[in-house]
Amino acid sequence: MAEVSEAEAANRLMRLAREIARHDKLYHDRDAPEISDAEYDALVRENRELEAQFPQLVRADSPSKRLGAAPTSTLAKVAHARPMLSLDNAFSAEEVEEFVARVKRFLALPPDAFVAFTAEPKIDGLSCSLRYEDGALVLAATRGDGAVGEDVTANVRTIWDIPQHLYPGEGRGPVQEKNRPESAAWSPAFAGVLEVRGEVYMSKTDFEALNERQEASGGKIFANPRNAAAGSLRQKDPGITAARPLRFLAHGWGEVSEPLGDTQLDAMKRIESFGIPVSDLLVRCDTSEEMLAHYRAIEKARADLPFDIAGVVYKVDRLDYQERLGQVARAPRWGLAHKFPAEKAETTLEAIDIQVGRTGKLTPVGRLKPVGVGGVIVANVTLHNRDEIARLGLRIGDRVRIQRAGDVIPQVVENLTRGEPRRAYEFPTRCPECGSEAVAEEGEVDVRCTGGLICPAQRFERLRHFVSRGALDIEGLGEKSIAEFIELGWLNSPADIFRLREHRDELLEREGWKDKSVDNLLAAIEAKRQADGPRFLFGLGIRHVGIVTAKDLLKCFGTIEELRRAALSEGGEEELSSVQGVGPVVAEAVHDFFHEPHNREVVDDLLSEVSPHPFVSDAKQTTWSGKTIVFTGSLETMSRDEAKAQAERLGARAAGSVSANTDLVVAGPGAGSKLKKAEELGVRVIGEDEWAKIVAEA
Ligand code: IVH
Q1: Residue 693: which residues within 8 A CB-CB, separation 6 or more?
Q2: Residues 195 and 308 in one domain
Q3: Which of 161, 280, 547, 566 could make an SS bond with 248 (beta carbons 3.0 to 4.6 A apart)?
Q4: For residue 14, what are the domain limits?
Q5: What pairing do the DSSP bridges indicate for beta strands 136-142 and 628-632?
Q6: In DSSP terms, which residues pair with 630 in a beta bridge?
Q7: Which backbone phi and psi does 563 adopt, to 5 degrees?
Q8: How many separate domains does the chain show?
């Protein structure tokens, strides 16, 4: 890893925490990931490596402190009776051999000892725990973070593969409910508690048909069968799950009142005998050669299997061995997932389109001459960002090698015609959606649209933020109403919120709106015409300007107009970055925001409707009010922070750098370039003693 300073690491860790949390939410709550698993893993890895390098920077909300993502949707949460574990991965035969050897070493067996393993497909779905009590299904839960999942019982009851009751029998496949004896005197196949664990999945053909239906009805399109299965299962309304073709395959168990057998294979056969589906590719292998042979057989059959698989799972067959082996962190020592390698193909890059995300990020998407990769036709690839295009030297017309691994979004791994003389691709400097300038911040790879408030791609998100609790806090204007008003063409920019009253009569005619709800909404909006300054500024959604920074900025500039003047003035960025609590990153973002003419128009429009309160400082009025003071060198009787706080109490502003706007420099021993600059500019310079006197007298 490149050398990074502590400050850079702190900054990067803060961003990583935010970014990882956002992707967790997209993946777990919305089933709509924006990045591949591999990219996600890279973020987590970077976070871990930086934290290892700077242990003092580990944040309370660090992603490393969370066990996967705890469910946050509105489904009820349930604690698992026994944790739902994950599996370690292997990608080569050597790693499998090493796993077998490791198991034997742990069990203190000689290398040539006989240890049997089961081998079965690793299904690409989502794991689910089914709890039966005295043969009746009483609870079904998703994995969640492994300790706490979500209650999906009502939804699972609609899945035909999953029996509601366990009957004795030899049969494979589900025992239908209609065959259930009517009498209460039925005897369950398994008394007490039995938690069956397995994978809820959607078949490839059902997935394609579902997406076609979704497209026709304007519904959400799913990226792959696994997301479709997750999105279908994790529904508040079981009616939706019932309409989705979900399937189930068991691969293990959780809490059980009594052992299911002596071996993994016997236990799984037992579960199958209760009418719960188990993969027919589950076998027992006596040697690692047999395990690898089964892996190759499954890999060969992969394209013809009705569902997506990601590899083969091996498990130690003897359950007493499993018990002894136990687990490390969140994965058992007795299990391993042997993943399939990525599948590759070659094709032509026909175009590069730019998509603008909800946060303004410009993502290049490669349009390919469609090509089959591992049984799937691929026509689009994400090119990630500007740097990735440059790294691969991609131009339209290039031959490219692409790869697809599991459900990961296909990627370009190589440009096969790099040497051909053709013009380089030019990444846009304007947003294709709104024409605003698109820029990358220093040290950032992502190019973002700066027209946040007017960009249609960002409109919903921006409006939602503007009215959110931390910003203007307009009660009654929730996501649903915002979406409705955008759809009606009533809301394009934040100022339109204050013109919604012009649509009062039309709104009253709409379903779900009554006199009272409309009046309440309009009153809540009117109440915010005298908005709180910092909340208003925060609501504008300028990158890096949170509520604390908004306060810091207004503490210094008083009003939005003054802030804008400063941002647009010559040397404005420097002036901004000298505000206490504001660094160069914020300064650049504020500067870029106000330099975009579209944003100025939106702010003007807003200010014609809203009059934010000027910031009122709780500092006393002194001769120092409004003055700018810089502390430099080492202070002996107080800390730098204390000195700054004293300045603020006098109504002055403590800045980080000396400029023509500086009124006073307090210099301690060791003061260097700032002192020199102050002398050059003729700024008054005093020592710590004199400063203490000023404070005492004020
Ligand atoms: S065994 C303690 N067997 O893969 C071991 N898991 O990467 C827990 N999965 O969370 C699982 N097919 O959702 C097992 N045949 C299989 C599987 C399988 C898919 C999933 C499961 C688990 C994840 C671990």
Answers
A1: none
A2: yes
A3: 161
A4: 6-66
A5: unpaired
A6: 655, 665
A7: -60, -45
A8: 5
Domain match, 350 and 334 both: no
Q: Check if the beta carbon of residue 30 is closer than 8 Å to that of residue 23.
A: no
Q: Which two tokens stand for residue 287?
A: 């040697």
Q: How far is the CA of 117 from the centre of ligand 1 (A)?
A: 15
Same domain, residue pair 117 and 217: yes
* Known catalytic membership, residue 555: no
Substitution candidate for ligand 1 out of 251, 325, 407 with most atoms within 8 A of CB = 251
Atom of ligand 1 nearest to the CA of 252: 1
User: What is Dmax (Cα atoms) for the chain?
Assistant: 99
Query: What is the reported pLDDT for 202?
Result: 96
The DSSP-derived string for 614-673 is: PP---SPP-TTTT-EEEEES--SSS-HHHHHHHHHHTT-EEESS--TT--EEEE-TT--H
Q: Phi and psi (nearest 5°) for 141?
A: -140, 145
Examine the domain organization and report whether 213 and 148 are in the same domain: yes
The catalytic residue among 77, 122, 204, 644 is: 122
Cα 108 to ligand 1 centroid, rounded to whole Å: 27
pLDDT for the residue 655 = 79
3-state SS assignment for residue 556: helix
- Average pLDDT for runs of 10 along the chain of length 698: 65 77 70 66 73 72 55 77 94 96 95 96 96 95 94 93 81 45 68 97 94 86 88 91 94 97 97 94 96 96 91 97 91 95 91 89 94 81 93 96 78 94 93 92 87 84 89 90 91 94 94 92 95 93 88 88 90 83 87 90 94 75 82 82 78 82 90 90 91 85
Tally of CB atoms within 10 A around 604: 12
Note whether 35 and 124 are same-domain residues.
no
Query: Amino acid letter at 207?
Result: F
Q: Which residues line ligand 1 (CB under 6 A)?
A: 85-87, 120, 122-123, 127, 143, 199, 251-252, 313, 332, 335, 337
Q: Say what the pLDDT of residue 1 is.
A: 41
Helix, strand, coil content of the chain in percent (nearest 5): 40, 20, 40
Please state, in angstroms and rounded to a whole number, the distance separating the CA atoms of residues 96 and 119. Answer: 12
Q: Is residue 324 located within the same domain as residue 361?
A: no
